Amino acid sequence: QVQLVESGGGLVQPGGSLRLSCAASGSIFTPNAMGWYRQVLGKERELVATIRKGGSTNYADSVKGRFTISRENAKNTVYLQMNSLKPEDTGVYYCNLVLGLLTYWGQGTQVTVSS
């Protein structure tokens, strides 16, 4: 069984920074890809950033230049450094792991950007 444990969410003022972490545990080898998605109440979950096993990254246009995704393969951990946060970044952030044909999700961590 694979488990994803997220941490690092919270309340931050516009322009501030947060760092999210997600540690994967269980019967896994190096995941094909890990990433972050976010969801606002009433809207569909949307991609924020992903990073593949080889290190290639993909970002939503809305976060390019402000967010950085990274990973530690040895720890099966993925990070999301979020800078210059905006109110529209508010939402529940979910960690995602792709392992072969299977996809796993974390429980989500709330990020609120507000003054």
Task: Describe the protein.
This protein has 115 residues and is mostly beta strands. It is 0% helix and 55% strand. It has no helices and 11 strands. Strands 2, 4, 5, 6, 9, 10 and 11 form a 7-stranded mixed sheet that branches. The chain has a 4-stranded antiparallel sheet with strand order 1-3-8-7, with no helix packed on it. A hairpin with a 6-residue loop joins strand 4 and strand 5. The chain is globular.
Mean pLDDT: 93
Structure summary, number of beta strands: 11
Helix/strand class? mainly beta
Q: Helix segment count? A: 0
The low-pLDDT segments are: none
Supply Rg.
Answer: 13 Å
Classify the oligomer. single chain
Structural shape: globular
**Describe the biggest sheet?**
7 strands, mixed
Strand percentage lies at over 45%
What is the CA-CA span between the terminal residues? 40 Å
Helices and strands, in order, run as EEEEEEEEEEE
Residue share in helix: under 10%
Report a brief summary of the structure.
With 115 residues, the chain is an all-beta fold. It has strands spanning 3-7, 10-12, 18-25, 33-39, 46-52, 57-59, 67-72, 77-82, 91-99, 102-105, 109-113.
Task: Provide the descriptors you would attach to this structure in a database record.
four-stranded antiparallel beta sheet, mainly beta, 115 residues, globular
SSE blueprint and pairings:
Elements: E1 3-7, E2 10-12, E3 18-25, E4 33-39, E5 46-52, E6 57-59, E7 67-72, E8 77-82, E9 91-99, E10 102-105, E11 109-113
Parallel strand pairs: 2-11
Antiparallel strand pairs: 1-3, 3-8, 4-5, 4-9, 5-6, 7-8, 9-10, 9-11
